[in-house]
Specification:
Elements: H1 9-14, E1 15-20, E2 24-29, E3 36-41, H2 54-74, E4 79-83, E5 94-99, H3 121-138
Antiparallel strand pairs: 1-2, 2-3, 3-5, 4-5
Helix pairs in contact: 2-3
Length: 139
């Protein structure tokens, strides 16, 4: 499934790989203001959701639901935002963001809201490990 797949360099720079699901890699956005996961289908040349086969589309939605549930379980939040924009990074990727009233962008979108505040090394490691454990247990 991954033959010819190359991760966009901006996604590589802004996120940390957590795990691989049957279709997608799960990556943690390095912005401590928002608990934020990104799913990237490991298929070459995908830009839009409609570029996926029916089977891959069904798998993607299953993975989105699974990862959103894990994020909601691990991170206290008021709302889970799910989106696929791709205006800057064209490679198909899905954002799953845990939002809390009063967060740095509330009630607006997280995209384009100020500058990312990278996690400290210990905080990044701790959150990544908690998420990976929850993905393994509930997967």
């Amino acid at each position: 499934m991954s033959g010819g797949f190359v991760l966009d360099s901006r996604l590589e720079a802004d996120t940390r790989h957590l795990t691989s699901l049957p279709l997608c890699d799960v990556r943690l956005m390095n912005d401590a203001r928002f608990p934020w996961l990104v799913l990237v289908p490991r298929q070459p040349q995908l830009v839009e959701l409609l570029d996926l086969s029916d089977e891959a589309s069904a798998t993607l939605w299953k993975e989105i639901r699974h990862i959103a549930a894990v994020l909601r379980e691990i991170v206290p939040c008021d709302k889970i935002n799910i989106g696929a924009l791709g205006n800057i990074v064209r490679q198909l990727h899905i954002h799953i963001v845990a939002r809390k009233e009063g967060d740095a962008a509330w009630p607006g979108p997280v995209w384009g809201s100020g500058r990312a505040q990278p996690y400290g090394a210990d905080d990044l490691h701790s959150l990544a490990e908690r998420l990976k454990r929850a993905m393994d247990v509930s997967g």
